[in-house]
Design brief:
With 464 residues, this protein is an alpha+beta fold. Helices cover 20% and strands 35% of the residues. About 8% of the residues have low confidence.
């Protein structure tokens, strides 16, 4: 009787499990991966990257010259207060992963940019000097090459378009110099825009990512790379961002071949369609990309696109969010004629534009935020933002995000800091900030006065 009951119970459990699987209530993806086996399999393809660069000597404090002629103490002051500093090495750490068994390595551009020397350390302890084969500043990608005997284990590239929020992921990298660190979590969100450039489309994860993880792989539960760990939010916990691997795969042939990426160009600056703007233009919903600037004699200008038009479809793809348009344009072959559907004063229109080559400096993101060469994203302070931050003075430029390993982060700057002065010049607007930045020559030291909370502090940053 007991045996019969146990058999009935087993059969009942089996039938229930089968019903749940068929109904979709339980899926294979819900099963926790074997992280032990994944780590053993994947760690050999992950590398640590160390870089060094020489910072040029700068003069520090200068004493006032004696207006009455030669001073016996001049020699003393010249030696101790106006003497050039010695050149020094600035070192940083990052991560990467092998993408071909003959020694090609993928990482972030910001990990290696400006480096005099790059070293790649394999999981077995071997270390090699690396050469940069190609870089893409806009996507923050770099391809390195090391000369190594024998075939290397590689990280298989997956399909980032297929991932879903809630899936298990695992990151392997070199956070804070801690070699071969493994962390796990889930996909928290996709399509994140964090103000780092015109092609923002990040995977957000709560797998622990810290400075030094930059350039390392984000694996799915099958052990395939679905992202390149790139950014964190200063002070944030459980929030990291990775470049979708499909974006990297699209440009890898160019990076490995010519060392640079050629992109399509439409010749417009765009911004989101807010509810207020939609109402003012007489359109329903907030889909599309609002044209705020048209480059003279550019593809859009030749096609008759005007300021105030809302682009709702590009080459057969609907533009639901403003940020998808730059990515679609960039991936369009040069010379291709594409149909553009737009709204002008609420009325639908259609035109055709011939895509041209994007030149340096022509890609424009949302004008409200600017990412500079210091490795930080900033925006102009206004009354609303000042009120949110609890400050009275609504003048200045506020830091909204930092790139791991960037000059700003190395100097101790943080998101929320307000830049009040650069080299003694007041910074009240974004125009002031951009001018001050453009005046700085490579190899010099830039002094910033920051407001942090109720206090102020100076920081000095070498200009790269």
């Amino acid at each position: 009787m007991i045996r019969l009951f146990l058999r009935f119970l087993k059969l009942s459990i089996l039938l229930t499990a089968m019903t749940l699987l068929q109904s979709g209530a339980v899926s294979a993806k819900a099963i926790t991966p074997d992280f032990v086996e994944l780590a053993k399999k994947l760690k050999p393809a992950v590398v640590n990257i160390s870089t060094s660069k020489t910072i040029a000597p700068q003069r520090s404090l200068q004493h006032p010259r004696n207006p009455f002629g030669q001073d016996p103490f001049d020699d003393f002051f010249n030696r101790f207060f106006d003497a050039p500093q010695h050149p020094y090495k600035q070192r940083s750490l990052g991560s990467g992963f092998v993408i071909s068994n003959d020694g090609y390595v993928l990482t972030n551009n910001h990990v290696v940019t400006g480096a005099d020397e790059i070293k790649v350390k394999l999981s077995d302890g071997r270390e090699f000097k690396a050469n940069i084969k190609g870089t893409d500043e806009k996507l923050d990608l770099a391809v390195l090459k090391i000369d190594v005997k024998g075939a290397l284990p590689i990280a298989e590239l997956g399909d980032s378009d297929a991932i879903q929020v809630g899936e298990w992921v695992m990151a392997i990298g070199n956070p804070f110099g801690l070699n071969q660190t493994v962390t796990a979590g889930i996909v928290s969100a996709t399509g994140r825009v964090i103000g780092s450039g015109p092609y923002d489309d990040y995977i957000q994860t709560d797998a622990s990512i810290n400075p030094g993880n930059s350039g390392g792989p984000l694996f799915d539960a099958k052990g395939k790379v679905i992202g390149i760990n790139t950014a964190i939010i200063a002070g944030g916990q459980g929030i990291g961002f990775a470049i979708p691997i499909n974006m990297a795969k699209a440009v890898l042939p160019q990076l490995e071949g010519s060392g640079k990426v050629t992109r399509g160009w439409l010749g417009v600056a765009i911004q989101p369609v807010t509810p207020e703007l939609a109402q003012s233009f007489g359109v329903k919903g907030e889909n599309g990309a609002l044209v705020s600037e048209v480059t003279k004699d550019g593809p859009a200008d030749k096609a008759g696109v005007k300021i105030g038009d809302i682009i709702v479809e590009f080459d057969g793809k609907q533009i639901h969010e403003m940020n998808s348009l730059p990515r679609d344009v960039a991936s369009t072959p040069l010379g291709k004629k594409v149909k553009i559907k737009l709204l002008r004063n609420g009325k639908p229109m259609e035109t055709t534009a011939k895509i041209e080559r994007l030149k340096d400096g022509e890609a424009k993101a949302v004008p409200a935020e600017v990412q500079d060469r210091l490795g930080m994203t900033v925006t102009e302070l206004n009354a609303d933002l000042a009120a949110q931050m609890g400050i009275k003075d609504a003048k200045g430029v506020v830091i909204t995000a930092l790139k791991p390993g960037g000059a700003a982060e190395e100097a101790g700057m943080a998101a929320g800091d307000i830049i009040k002065e650069i080299n003694g010049a007041a910074i009240n607007t974004m125009a002031d900030y951009e001018k001050a930045l453009s005046d700085q020559k490579k190899g010099t030291i830039m002094r910033l006065l920051l407001r942090r909370g109720e206090g102020s502090l100076f920081v000095a940053i070498p200009v790269e």
